[in-house]
Amino acid sequence: APAGAAMRTEISTAAAFVTRLLRAAGGIGEEQLRCFRECLQEALREHYKHHWFPLVPSKGSGYRCIRINHKMDPLIGKAAGMIGLSHERLFQLLPSELTLWVDPFEVSYRIGEDGSICVLYENPQPGGKATKPLESRTSCKEEWRIGRSSPSKNYNMMTVSS
What we know:
- This protein is α+β, with helices and mostly antiparallel strands.
- The protein has one domain (3-122): Anti-proliferative protein, N-terminal domain (Actin, Chain A, domain 4), CATH 3.90.640.90.
- It is 53% helix and 14% strand.
- The chain contains 7 helices and 4 strands.
- It has helices at 3-25, 30-48, 61-64, 74-82, 87-93, 135-149, 153-161, and strands at 66-69, 97-103, 106-111, 117-122.
- It has a 4-stranded antiparallel beta sheet.
- A hairpin with a 2-residue loop joins strand 2 (97-103) and strand 3.
- The longest helix has 23 residues, at 3-25.
- The radius of gyration is 16 Å and the shape is globular.
- Residues 130-139 and 141-162 have low confidence and may be disordered.
């Protein structure tokens, strides 16, 4: 299968996650969110095209990593620009520190530089050995929901100190 087909689940998982963060922040219409998600998927597909190695999933992981660390990830920035969201507005809507790893068979994220890593999508590698047990890593999905409902204090501290 062409890489594009192989990457589809991972890319749509990643794009849907960022879209969900924007939706949770509020104030953006569904039509805009849909457009954002499609633009981001397209940008990721293009960006990952020659950097997807299902046989060596960790290869190119740094290149594929989506990252906001007081600098906006260019791919998120580009998709947001398509629906008229400025980088400043994105920083208000999204965590100031977010890392999203999009690798073959696994998509995971971390909010905050020392937050726990949460898995969004995991698929055992065909013919590969089972990956690490999931039990220890699923609890943070709940944490994310709870964490979003109250504005987290450490983000404010982070931005002030920089």
